[in-house]
Write a structure and sequence with these properties.
Length: 254
């Protein structure tokens, strides 16, 4: 559903569809690149939504060129913004994508941040998608871990509200394979829902022992497959959380 455009807002500087002329700017276009869907939403300066969430399917062959074309569709649905935050499913270093296990090998070494800045002529920051989700979920209290259950397995770890960069729990050895082999979509398809839930319970216990987290947040599309009640200090978070954390990428420089 395309958001309604406020004609008054459209005439005002730094206004966006769904935002009034008095909406605190800058307006952030927050983007989440996933293995099955590309999503975007506009956020005000406090990180609150000022548009509906827009979605398009991730291309069947998710090369950089194909995904960029999909992002262009989203940009046209949400055309008025001041800066961009992007969550990407892989390791990010200085705006460049180093890995993309659930997309395409052509993403290795792709300067996504620079490419989007040149195309859209707006400041852009790119981070791991699970890190953005974590920013949208955490309290900033103690050790906090966020896991994303989707096509793959995303993870982000925070201490006192600060991100510990570079964590890739998905590909860490676990049992006879890796965490992602059991908890990603491949594991759900191969082992079935009952076994997948069993593995998730075990992973919750294992990560608590590994990180001694104070809070665990679990998000992603496959949270709807969870059939048990999480324990103390474990919270299931909504899919929108992966977008709501976008403003946090700009906190260090205002």
């Amino acid at each position: 559903m395309t958001p309604k455009t406020d004609l008054t807002a459209a005439a005002a500087p730094k206004a966006s569809p769904g935002a009034s002329p008095t909406t605190p700017g800058p307006i952030t276009l927050s983007v989440d690149i996933g293995g099955s869907k590309l999503k975007a939403m506009l956020l005000d300066s406090a990180g609150k939504p000022v548009s509906e969430r827009q979605r398009v399917l991730t291309p069947e062959a998710p090369t950089p060129a194909a995904v960029l074309a999909g992002l262009e569709q989203l940009r046209k649905l949400l055309p008025r913004f001041d800066r961009v935050s992007v969550g990407f499913p892989g390791v990010i270093k200085r705006g460049t994508t180093w890995t993309a296990f659930n997309l395409n090998p052509k993403w290795a070494g792709f300067p996504l941040q620079a490419v989007l800045q040149k195309r859209w002529k707006k400041p852009v920051r790119v981070a791991n998608d699970a890190a953005v989700q974590g920013y949208g979920a955490i309290k900033g209290d103690g050790v906090e871990l966020a896991l994303t259950l989707g096509t793959g397995l995303g993870s982000s770890l925070f201490t006192g509200g600060r991100l510990c960069p570079g964590l890739e729990l998905a590909h860490h050895p676990w049992k006879s394979k890796t965490y992602e082999d059991y908890l990603g979509q491949r594991g759900l398809d191969k082992f079935g829902k009952k076994a997948w839930n069993k593995f998730l319970k075990q992973a919750i216990d294992q990560t608590e022992k590994l990180f001694n987290w104070d809070h665990l947040y679990i998000g992603g599309g496959n949270t709807k497959k969870i059939d048990f009640k999480p324990g103390k200090n474990v919270k299931i978070i909504s899919n929108e959380t992966g977008l709501l954390g976008g403003v946090a990428l700009w906190r260090d420089r205002g």
